[in-house]
UniProtKB/TrEMBL annotation:
<keyword id="KW-0444">Lipid biosynthesis</keyword>
<comment type="subunit">
    <text>Homotrimer.</text>
</comment>
<dbReference type="InterPro" id="IPR020573">
    <property type="entry name" value="UDP_GlcNAc_AcTrfase_non-rep"/>
</dbReference>
<keyword id="KW-0443">Lipid metabolism</keyword>
<keyword id="KW-0441">Lipid A biosynthesis</keyword>
<feature type="active site" description="Proton acceptor">
    <location>
        <position position="239"/>
    </location>
</feature>
<keyword id="KW-0808">Transferase</keyword>
<dbReference type="InterPro" id="IPR001451">
    <property type="entry name" value="Hexapep"/>
</dbReference>
<keyword id="KW-0677">Repeat</keyword>
<dbReference type="InterPro" id="IPR011004">
    <property type="entry name" value="Trimer_LpxA-like_sf"/>
</dbReference>
<dbReference type="InterPro" id="IPR007691">
    <property type="entry name" value="LpxD"/>
</dbReference>
<dbReference type="GO" id="GO:0016020">
    <property type="term" value="C:membrane"/>
</dbReference>
<protein>
    <recommendedName>
        <fullName>UDP-3-O-acylglucosamine N-acyltransferase</fullName>
        <ecNumber>2.3.1.191</ecNumber>
    </recommendedName>
</protein>
<keyword id="KW-0012">Acyltransferase</keyword>
<feature type="domain" description="UDP-3-O-[3-hydroxymyristoyl] glucosamine N-acyltransferase non-repeat region">
    <location>
        <begin position="23"/>
        <end position="89"/>
    </location>
</feature>
<comment type="similarity">
    <text>Belongs to the transferase hexapeptide repeat family. LpxD subfamily.</text>
</comment>
<dbReference type="Pfam" id="PF00132">
    <property type="entry name" value="Hexapep"/>
</dbReference>
Amino acid sequence: MAVITLAELADKLGAELHGDDTTEIHSIAAMGKATTGQITFLSDSKYRQQLTECQADAVMLREADVEFFKGNKLVVKDPYLSYALVAQLLDTTPVAATDIAASAYIDPTATVGSNVAIGHNAVIEAGVQLGDNVQIGAGCFIGKNAIIGNNTKLWANVTIYHDVVLGSQCLVQSSTVIGADGFGYANDKGEWVKIPQLGSVRIGDRVEIGACTTIDRGALEDTIIADNVIIDNQMQIAHNVQIGYGTAMAGGTIVAGSTTIGKYCIIGGASVLNGHIKIADGVTITGMGMVMRSIEDKGMYSSGIPLQPNKEWRRTATRVHRIDDMNKRLKAVEKQLKANDE
């Protein structure tokens, strides 16, 4: 268990410390459950009343909330960001692999950097390049000529197909598949003819990809994920998609082929993006968004229907089905009113 003093935390966070700088912290916890040896945070002032009963040894908060907590305080500009940084310092997540397991297969032509760990039953095929400090979890498959950059970590059972490039300091959760064939077929009189997917997938640095996500290889050109992108669990990213720097995508989202998503976009969970469209930089799509056309301007967009009691939803659905008829009737009334005015 890692232990750090408040003085050390204040130094690492650039925080102003109010209280005993020798207090030792071993973990971080929610405000209502934190106790001795733990630190918590207040990121939203509407919850400041909880500070009066908080039992944490220290709280990270803004200057405006200092007077509401009598114990040790770390005053910071952004408590939520500070929480993330402290969580990293006190992280107890184990490594994906330790050393190189005897049961791992590494092709003699593969290049393995220094301090690489490869778990049991992992397969590293011909021509693979693994950078320094790479961790490959148990049961992973790294296909021919794939490249994995320094300090990248793959949890168990990740599959990386041939020729895929994965950058430095990336994290890929279990059972994700990168570089499988895109959904490309021609139709010959009712018979499907497969189109070999000849591109690959190129993923930048500091990209995190959740569990059970699939990122397809390109048909002719590559599928491209830029640096600093975060992708949640159980997502489908189709062939030739491009995702720009700093974009965040929540779970269950589907992106169809050849769509381009700009920089710093936020895509809510269970959204569906049509193929061959472009999403501008800085676009936010709220959960269950159905994007059928390109979005050219920065902003927030929504289309999911909020939950209603069933009786209300049935009435709403009935009215939606009648919209065309209502529109025709409205036009007829407008035409009649115009004729009366004349």
